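REQUEST ID: PR-0412
SUBMITTED BY: lab tech R.K.
PRIORITY: routine
TASK: structure prediction, single protein chain
INPUT:
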Amino acid sequence: MLKIAFIAHDRKKDEMVNFITAYEHVFTDHQLYSTGTTGQRIMEQTKLQIHRFMSGPLGGDQQIGAMVAQNDMDLIIFLRDPLMAQPHEPDISALLRLCDVQGIPLATNVATAEILVKALDRGDFAWRELVHKYKPGLDQQGDVK
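STATUS: complete
OUTPUT:
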């Protein structure tokens, strides 16, 4: 079971909902997270249960970033709107940087998201389970020492 986060800027929320609806079967067995409104919209259109953080501008990006910083997130789909300035751009940049630091797969458009979700469906993310298994402070079964 992997931890997956969904984030979408306002003009990308419909696209996110459509994408998640199309691949709902892939996400069913994973722990799902999102920023506030994005998660609410997804849950209204699917049967998925999602842990919702605050909206992005109110700190939701940072809450997800905190999980990334702890290497406690496995995949992020962040549909960004490159044509609209975002008031919380520093938070967005920090999240992207943290994903690079921790080696967390991150899709910022539907084309890349589809490739990652198809890989997830094939089981290509098994290496992330090994990351969790051998985290400092955990035994080989992934339990706290």
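NOTES: The first strand starts at residue 3 and ends at 8.
REVIEWED BY: pending
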